[in-house]
Amino acid sequence: MAYMNVMTRNKLKIVIAEAYKLKKKEGKVDLTIQNLNSKILRAKTKLEVVSAVEEKARSIVRRAEFKGKVVMEGDRKEPYGGYGGGYGGMLVAVKVATEVNLMVAA
Question: What's the rounded Cα separation, in Å, for the pair 41 and 85?
């Protein structure tokens, strides 16, 4: 009878040790999942920022194209005065370059 108790205790120790190892592995898996979720959230945030910057750049280009067309028409109608003044296209280009530089810096 005493021999059975020793065997049972030994088996119980083995089971407890295996359970501890499994819990430890489970904790590592949970930690890995949390780390991956954090990385995904950071990447998602970066993607949203890049998408917003890209949309802003497209908007600036569209406005520049529109302003360029307006200035070109103004230049043709009044080459040395009025809206275009002969320098309007260059001013729009400088403004667009400045806006793009500010956007890239941010």
Answer: 51
